[in-house]
Amino acid sequence: MWPLYAAGFTTAFGAHGVAASLGGASEDAVTSLLVLGGLLALYDGAEVVLKPVFGTLADRVGAKPVLLGGLIAFAAASGSYVLADSPGWLWAARLGQGAAASAFSPSASALVARLNPAAKHGRAFGSYGFYKSIGYTLGPLLGGLLVWAGGLRLLFGAMMVCAAVVAVWAALAVPAVPPLPKTRQTVADLVRRLTDRAFLAPTTALAGATAALSVGVGFLPVSGAAVGLGPVATGAAVSVLAATAALVQPWSGRALDAGRLTTRTGLGAGLLLAASGLAAAMIPGLIGILAAAALIGCGTGLITPLGFAALAASTPPERLGQTMGAAELGRELGDAAGPLLVASVAVVAGLSYGYAVLALVLTLIPLLVIRAAGRPFSEYSGH
């Protein structure tokens, strides 16, 4: 399992390590805020388009080959900028990294599910989420240090080495998991499965959690600066958010496996915690910001392993890659929609109202999705 955890770390480090360093890294490559926005969007844009595609491919040819191919492609894309070091190659390398992560991220999730019995899915996804959160937490710090020491080329070189090492490790340590025989699936069958509550409920919860996390990381520093807090204090608040999310995930997974927590209760509580964090962000000063960071981190950490465990439990094993790719797409959409919603409201009415609107949305999700009429959600998830 350790190579799969390392793959999760790699995609998170690749996303945040570069994103946090681009703004001040190269005046030749990043000439305006528009260029910066484009470079930031390339990685996530590639993931939104390609994750479902590679997830389906993993079901067809096996998750391990897609995992290894993605890691090798990530190393190659990173290495291309190390060799070329030009603005054009920076765009190409960032696009290549996002496309490669689209391959090995859902494949790693599918392998976590296939290589663990259903009774241990909570613990497995909790551990996977923990190491992925470590990548998100350390990415900006390590990326900044590497850029300070040797520029963007050193950062991309470190990513190349990281992906190559994980690829070799996975090739040697991850067992081959052959694709399972499956019945023919029509487009109508796929639509029916992806619109079923067994898929929609955990995926919507994951998207909501990711939206709250993205807003916390992006806007809490803005709230801090508005009341005179310096970058050290606001950076510490973001670190509290990421660290809390990382620490809660293994506990959440173990509680699910032990029967101390149900999927339905955990997802609902996680969304309400994240909504409470956004409400706390409306309180001026450091106390409000730290409370917001801790609550959003707790909510995100609670939801992530439960959501993926529920998806694994309700999906036929031969369709795990497709389901994980589609669920990752939902998370990416939440990652984009949360900040856009808060920013749109903030432009008209102020940032506090932006927090309030997203908090309201997260509060309504359990009522509209998880507690919708029909069979209890726990019947779908197996917990």
TrEMBL record:
The chain crosses the membrane at residues 30-54, 66-84, 128-148, 154-177, 198-220, 226-248, 269-296, 340-370. It is a multi-pass membrane protein. Residues 1-374 form the Major facilitator superfamily (MFS) profile domain. Its main location: membrane. PROSITE patterns: MFS (PS50850). The keyword DNA-binding does not apply. The keyword Zinc does not apply. InterPro entries: MFS, MFS_dom, MFS_trans_sf, MFS_Transporters, Tet-R_TetA/multi-R_MdtG-like. Pfam families: MFS_1. SUPFAM superfamilies: MFS general substrate transporter. Keywords: Cell membrane, Membrane, Transmembrane, Transmembrane helix, Transport. It is found in: Cell membrane. It comes from the Bacteria. This is MFS transporter. The lineage of its organism: Bacteria, Bacillati, Actinomycetota, Actinomycetes, Streptosporangiales.
